[in-house]
Amino acid sequence: MTAGAQVILRTVQRIYDAAMEPQEWPHCLDAVRDLVGGSHAVFTTTTPDGVQLATCSRMDVRQHGDRCDKILHSDFWAEQMQRFPAGTARTQSSLVPVPDYERTDFYQQLIRPIGGGLAAVAVPWRGPSSWSAVRVCRPLHERDFGPEELNRLQALVPHLAKAGKLHRRLASVDPCTTGALAAIDALGLGLILLDRHGRPAYRNERAEAVIAARDGLLADAYGIATALPAQTRALHQAIAAAMLLAGGPDTADAALNRAAAAMLRIPVSRRPPSGPLILTVVPAPSGRSAPGEPGAVAVLISDPDRRSRIDTAGLATAYGLTRRESHLAALIADGFGPAEAAETLGISIGTARHYLKQVFEKTETHRQAELVRLLLHSFVAPDSGAAIGR
């Protein structure tokens, strides 16, 4: 692979990162600007609610914010952008010759002060009332963008279009806040969000890892399935029932009938010696579906074989445990018996039993099952991983 191809691939990766994490757009646009070769770049979107400046690269928005707003809302800008064909990278000078452009008030009053003039432009997608555009710019006194530079921008156009589509699908699902997603990540659960057509609109990092393993759970752009037909049927029945539940009161009766016949927790078999994954299918109403239409669905993925790390510091603070007591409790929650925990901690079995008795008293639990339930419900650390001593 040539060095140029590697740079394009890295830029493409930036584009998809930005689609999933909007805060990555500045880094993405930096990469686009460097690839095409401009002094600055601007990415804009137009929606039915008006023109929005998504991000810019190497331009001080605080200094030029008012001027940028005038540019994006000017009639000259709107007319010019409508003339660029969707899906094709072109120079601005191919539509407006440089001498003519230089004489316009638009250039003299708005563009020249921010160091623009020449531009390589692409409109990745255009809908009935919305579109997006990326402009890589240079001052008017420099040379215009050539075929090689346009070809680099052209290579990015389909990826910008797909990334935009992905971002809009995520926005249309709108299942929960960032905080809720972070909580699911903290619990070590996989999460797949399905739109009202049953297509995956979002997968968190844990879900991506499960799917990449290709052991039991399968997913593509059109839906999710399991390796076994009977489990796939059960999963699809659960998804259909949850979609109706998410649709609100107008679909409640049908939802209840579906739910009565569907398991909303589905075991998904994996290759031995791994135990089954447990999928929990729940409605994720977004408020965007029309009354009576199916809604979005969340599929939570739990791996009973994956151990969770207990927040021993938080446990010790909450209940006044010593460091040894909190570490012993974490090992018990991880499935260790007292003897195995004692060996791991390098203490005698008698000392381990004394520590465990202290833990029961301080946490007001009486059996190991109660202690484990308390720890797994309240003290799983955000960084799920190997337990202490493993």
Written account of the structure:
With 390 residues, the chain is of the alpha+beta class. Helix content is 48%, strand content 18%. It has 16 helices and twelve strands. The protein has helices at 3-20, 25-36, 61-72, 75-83, 98-102, 105-111, 147-173, 178-186, 205-213, 229-246, 252-261, 312-319, 323-333, 338-345, 349-363, 368-378, and strands spanning 40-47, 50-57, 89-91, 117-126, 131-139, 190-194, 200-203, 217-220, 223-226, 265-268, 277-283, 297-302. A five-stranded antiparallel β-sheet has the order 2-1-5-4-3, with helices on both faces. Strands 7-6-12-11-10 form a five-stranded antiparallel β-sheet. A two-stranded antiparallel sheet has the order 8-9. Strand 8 (217-220) and strand 9 (223-226) form a beta hairpin. The protein is elongated. Residues 248-262, 287-292 and 383-390 have low confidence and may be disordered.
